[in-house]
Amino acid sequence: xxxxxxxxxxxxxxxxxxxxxxxxRPGEMYGFVGANGAGKTTTxxxxxxxxxxxxxxxxxxxxxxxxxxxxxxxxxxxxRGLYAKMRVGEQVEYFGRLGGMDAPAARRSADALxxxxxxxDRRGDEVAGLSLGNQQRVQLAVALIHExxxxxxxxxxxxxDPIAVDALAGVLAERxxxxxxxxxxxxxxxxxxxxxxxxxIIKDGRMIAGGTVAELRARESRKRLRIVxxxxxxxxxxxxxxxxxxxxxxxxxxxxxxxxxDQRYDEVILRPSDDQEALLLAARAGRVQHFGWQEPSLxxxxxxxxx
Length: 307
Description:
Its main location: membrane. The chain contains 10 helices and 14 strands. By secondary structure, it is of the alpha/beta class. The protein has 2 domains: 215 residues, P-loop containing nucleotide triphosphate hydrolases (Rossmann fold, 3-Layer(aba) Sandwich), CATH 3.40.50.300; 87 residues, 2-Layer Sandwich (Alpha-Beta Plaits), CATH 3.30.70. The strands form 3 sheets. The chain has a 6-stranded mixed beta sheet with strand order 6-7-8-3-9-10, with helices on both faces. A 4-stranded antiparallel beta sheet has the order 2-1-4-5, covered by helices on one side. A 4-stranded antiparallel beta sheet has the order 12-13-11-14, with helices on one face. Helix 3 crosses helix 4 and helix 3 runs parallel beside helix 5.
């Protein structure tokens, strides 16, 4: 288990990290999200030992992480760290040797990864001649070559097409199924929501929310009702108890022969103070087509907690 406990980092007068803590368990995929400059990359670099912290501790399996411990980590930096003129196969094998593998083991592991990541036809190509998506795949192979126990990936999906995203996500799912802990940062919140077991949200160097997506959604303040009413008079929704998050009203239109005729249509997203009162008001206003709790997306949760 990776434990990041109270990390602090300052650059002159700029506070980059102010007591950042998080936990990533074996076999867990952890999404680390935040705006640009929030502290994600700084945290990852400290976890990997690329930067020294001003305070706090990084622990792996309950012990402070040192050089030998971090040799069992795999790292994919946001600024890709590949040798542009080195051929794909040679490069992946080379990083395997740097990770402590002997030559035959590095070759076997490189062959398997190159095939799994769809790079077989590019094995003899220089990295500089590859597309961005294929460079990303090589970078992931480099991070995986020595079979790490922890993967730390900084924006691994940036710039990838949907096919490359699915390929990368599939490899990560295989690793977590084998017990590898994975932490990755991303601005693609729909992807984080789909892939991750747990999420941490950082703002201005502080962790401001964390847990599973279900736990983040379950907070009472985020419970919202979706109400759809036809045939209501304009302005009826203003009487609903609570905070209106969104409203979509449509004047009479469509097929008069339809089930509701040529009627006004109103959709309201409400954070209610009294859901039963909201139902009564909606029923009095018109015909209730839909009345139910709506789960916010991770993107909506993110916007709310960082506001």
